[in-house]
Write a structure and sequence with these properties.
The protein has 14 helices and 31 strands. It has 592 residues and is α+β, with helices and mostly antiparallel strands. Strands 2, 6, 7, 8, 9, 12, 15, 16 and 17 form a nine-stranded mixed beta sheet that branches. A six-stranded antiparallel beta sheet has the order 22-21-31-30-27-28. A five-stranded mixed beta sheet has the order 24-23-25-26-29, with no helix packed on it. A hairpin with a 2-residue loop joins strand 8 and strand 9.
Length: 592
Amino acid sequence: MSSVKVAVRVRPFNNREIGRQAKCVISMKDKTTAIQHPKQSKDVKAFNFDYSYWSHTNEQDPNFASQNKVYKDIGEEMLQHAFEGYNVCIFAYGQTGAGKSYTMMGKPEPRDQQGIIPQLCEELFYKIKTQESKDLQFSVEVSYMEIYCERVRDLLNPKNKGNLRVREHPLLGPYVEDLSKLAVTSFNEINTLMDEGNKARTVAATNMNETSSRSHAVFTVVFTQRRHDEMTDLSTEKVAKISLVDLAGSERANATGAKGDRLKEGANINKSLTTLGKVIHALAESSQSSSKKRKKSDFIPYRDSVLTWLLRENLGGNSKTAMIAALSPADINYEETLSTLRYADRAKQIVCKAVVNEDPNARLIRELKEEVMRLKELLKSEGLAELVDCPASPSAGGQRIMTPSSEDAMEQLRASEKLIAELNETWEEKLKKTELVKQEREAALAELGVALDGAGTTIGVCSPKNTPHLVNLNEDPLMSECLLYYIKPGVMKVGSTHADIILSGPHIRDHHCTFESREVNGEVVVTLTPEKSATIFVNGRTVEGPLLLKTGHRVILGKNHVFRFNHPEQARQEREKTPSAETPGGEPVDWT
């Protein structure tokens, strides 16, 4: 049993605080952090934590805590626990703009600005390289997800565009179904995946932070050690799950100026963080009271939020956990900073019961197979043997009516069989799956017109290969072909408000026109349909009714928006039909 390690870190003033001439109300000495009331100088509240990091000044200050200092104290210890076979978790908490993402992810360049996550991953592979031998093998898998407005999204796989389902298994506990787990063999691969995931994260600007994280991000590293004992000829495994969590910032709507979607996002963020606070409070109370005095009323509300449900094992369960509370030093954020300090003070009272995860896969596979056999017997006893033999076939059961209990058993059976298949995957199959996902991601980016080099690094924008699209034209050559509008299957609306393509200007109506892309005789055709009294020209002629667009058509919407319509498939067919200008009639040109 071990308590949650808690650290607090205060950042420098940001531009907003400097502009408002804010004063510093935070002071630190050794492990003690004190906060002074901005209007009552004698009102000072002090808190003791495992670590107090003073990052308010610069590196010339002897008390300054750098990114490397934070990692050395917290990251190295947690990585050592992972090598010992424990699950570990590091999560950052604080108000919006307090420096959570900087502490966890940092900046890629320069190297001394990197946060805990990239430093931990780099040292993980360095230790693997130095310790790997004939009898000791390592493997690493990663997943990256975000929890946005209580919905889970995969940040690594472009195919998983929808919201993923959170399920609970009696053996595994809460998990995200169909979340990508990609095998990696070097720090460069894991760094590339982190970069791709960070680009896909939901961020937005608020009054308090120009790049505010609007979602909770969970980067998970599953680290497996396989050791073979030559004397006994037995192989054992240790599996450690490293959860690195960057929480979205708590915020007040009047301070952030949130409206519309930002306000809705803030409400969901605060809801999940409030639930996290309730869970921490309940766990702290439960840890303080003896087992004899615990009552049935000591309920831990994990299920009230997706965030706390997924982090159940890390909060008071089988995990070595560390929390970093990010603080603003400004007097204008006194209430939020004091709330964060109280939050952190509660968290250090939580006691976790971490155990070494020794060879869990064999046990899991055995227990899952037993569960599958039990569920199959249950379905056979209800006369559904044909569904057991062919569960994937929709017509396997004919017109047989399934009871609710049978449907639940069937769903549990499919989930368990899927888990068994994942656990039985070989390392080569996982690497092959990772390569396929990489190819799909590159293909998706290429279709969107993003060019990549051999290393997978973005190098520019190119024309899409299959999708019809509009590209802007301008009398200034430097401003031409800078905007691409994809015309996707179905109907796309163009107008000044509530449209798929939003344009501005005095001659653009609220609902200006529509582009309809549909398939006719195996070919994709695009039809332009103007709204009543809308100003539209195609190749210099006024358009008053539906018009079938051809590749190369010049389209003017209003009087200022000029586009060229490109249809890659039509252009390809025209090139095939038209003979080469260099070889008229198919005969070679005589240059003598």
